[in-house]
# Entry
Amino acid sequence: MEKKLEDMNLLLQIEEMHKWYGKVHALKGLNLDVHAGEVVALIGDNGAGKSTLIKIISGVVRPSEGKIFFKGEEVNIDSVSTARKLGIETVHQDRTIIGDLDVTKNIFLTREETKSFGPFKILDHRKMREVAKKLTEKLGLKISSPDQEVRFCSGGERQGIAIARAMHFKSRLVILDEPTTALSAKGVEKVLNFVNHLKEENIGVIYITHSLRSGYQIADRFVVMSQGEVVVNIPKKSITFEDLERLCLTG
Amino acid sequence: MESSFDNKSVSESVENRTVSINARRIGLFVLENLVWFLTAAIFIAFGLLVDGFLTLNVAYFILYVSSPIGILVLAQSLCLLSGNFDLSIAQNAGLSALIVGLIIGREMPGVIPIPIAIALVPLLGGVLGAFNGFFIGILKINSFLVTLSTYLIYEFLAYYLLTQPIPGYHLPSGFLALGGWKFGPIYITFYAFFLIAIILSFYLKYSAFGIKIYAVGSDPETAEAAGINTGRVLFWVYVMAGVLAGIAGLAYAGFGGSISNSMAGGEVFWSFAGAIIGGVSMKGGRGRILGAMGGALLLGVIGSGVVLLDITATLRDVIKGFVVLAAVLIGKYRASAIDFLLMPSKGPTSRA
# Structure
């Protein structure tokens, strides 16, 4: 335990993580560190174990073996809300926001601000609306009003709303699951810009991507997974884009 | 020359935009409250067709006939907003009132105090709703299949339990108060309907659970990923709908002045019609309780209007069916028109 606290900046540590789905060995003794304010690009083919890993960190799936340390303390992430209480927020590629709800309601969903109304606690729509307005302005989202229903927002803006949510609730670690997959070049640029905002707030980011180019642009470190194991773990300063590309191609 | 032309076109487009924003606002207001405009229009149309329709007494009558079905419309709206529906809602209403009526009117009269007997009906409705909610929310079975089954169960249980109607004079009179007594010129049942609509509307807007209902109805997978226990939300939605069905059961009993085994018989269809005319989406997650309330009143106007037309009862129902079809069509175009107006106007560069 003492060892864990040496590096004050260390946010998430995963040690010897195994996951079995029946006879399928999805994670084979995986180790991973993420620091505060660091963007770790998690790269790998389908079936490499990326989504299993993410599901474990975000509390959707339980590991078969292994330990998770968060800020130096061993944690037991047994549900999505436990992960959120720790400050772990996951932004899925398409399971992120609810189209029929407006921007404000999406940001505050399940964590609404309330005020007293006689003996009752009722939702404080005005306060939430103001916060949402500030957040979207800060992120430079082109949203006409916080009352706008999200189904009219573009893909990049949707990711932005999810990131606004993570920023407002003081997340310490944000997992972005293929945030740029369905986006245009302009949308990708926006998302990368949002990630920079997270970095500025000293939030750790796990950025899962197929796209090496966007990953290389934004990440501080690259973790390449293959068949349930980490095969490459290298800081950006030690590798050129071409070498990273070659590494990923050869596995 | 070039620059002055540009300036002119810019100022013109700014002006156009201001106009279009105002037009948009008015358009949205009309569309979102369309059911009320439709209700008024049809009310006036009947007024022109039928002598003596435009009187206060007819208006009170409309409020009266709208209320029992109105409470069922609200219950159905809750289920629809959550992305599901309840085919058994009217049978729940009938069965809840029937069971309590059977106890106090035939099996053991005088044992249960009237206020408790009255409270038992919504309670029983809630239990029947919870039965639906258990299968739909907890076991995650399709709501069509579950409520189709409970429709049959509740329907034929009512026939099994009661063959001969219990006449009103065998029942303590207070039991029929909700559906049969007046306060001022208006029946109590309308106050109940109105009050429930206001409370429910407020609750959906100002409670976290209300937002959860919309979230689950709109996109259950994302709601679940956001940490909402969708099964639990659906369970409680069906309990709430069941409680409302129980209250509607009391209203139907009072309306008919007796307890029979087919009190709210075919009302389930009208519960859908009212909700949909009121702008509640069949796909879930969209719609407002006050709109559904308007939908119920519109049904009341149509129902009262055709009663006063000089035609046979069966032809009346045919006409009602056509009017509902027309309203549903209008509702469909209303939804796309609202989308068109809500679509944010943005420059071509901002579509990322």
User: Anything to note?
Assistant: Chain A has eight helices and twelve strands. The first strand of chain A starts at residue 10 and ends at 21. Helices of chain A lie at 50-57, 80-86, 103-108, 125-138, 155-168, 185-200, 212-218, 241-250.
